[in-house]
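Morning!

This is the sequence you dropped in the shared folder:
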Amino acid sequence: MDVYLEERIKVGISACMYGCKFRYNAKGWNQLEAIGRDASSFVWFPVCPEVNAGFGVPREAIKITGESGSAVWENAGKVMSGSGKNLSKALMNSSEACLNQLLSAGVSVYIYMEGSPSCGVYRTTLKNKRLGKPPGVFGHLLLENGFFLIPADELTSPVKWWDWRRRMLAFLWLKKQPLETKADLYNIWHVLKFLCQEIDEKWARALGKTLADSTVAEMGGLEAIRKSILDVLRLPSSPQKIKNRLWKHYSHYRKYTGKSIEGIKRPTELRNMTDLAEELLKMELGAMSADYLFGASPIINRKQKSKT
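The structure's back. Tokens below.
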């Protein structure tokens, strides 16, 4: 049973990661080259709060003072240039403008430049890999508005990108699902439970038990459950978990369809990450052709073929 997300996905991205030479030193990287043909599957929305704020390229180094970029929004921190100029208001106004641009276009996924005092989420400096004072000023808005956030540097890993992509599609699909009854919730959980079990098995098993034993009111309401699943889908898996689940799903696929897929290896067999990514893609294609729900990657992003 294939589950489709038919619209072309809109994705925001830090402009310097899209290839624009917008960084403080007039450099930029086209990180989308790493995902190859996948890049053409999305509609891209590059933004740069720093350039939009009028800082120019190249520009002085900027840094956050106070506890974090979040504190800047509470007037308990500042954004300062290397020469001592207070740039807080300009960057805040620009960050709000970039956010509104993304929201008005219906964007809820963002690929961010980690280490940036504006776009960084978990790190706001590149010096010696220190954390700085995360999140950044724009990063704070992305978190507050519930974006699905992908670090740009992980696009270069085939397996990490596969992991982000499949969870992103599940995240977007879940956001759009009608959820008015417990039956709706059961249908959603049927599609997403194996992916959630891979990411956080203890949490997923507990939720499954709660669904069986409790009323919606006792669970805190349907939208609270949706939010908890969305939060789990934001969390990355690991190569070992992915390998284990791939083999488990493949074993079930063979029993269900009576078919084999050449090249899929046991979890204990050695292979590099590029080969593992190819196995995962083969499994996705095999499942799709057999109309089989591949629980580790349950949402397909393409128009559903007509059955007439």
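Headline: The beta strands are 3-4, 9-14, 42-47, 62-65, 78-81, 109-112, 148-151, 299-300.

More detail when I'm at my desk.
O.
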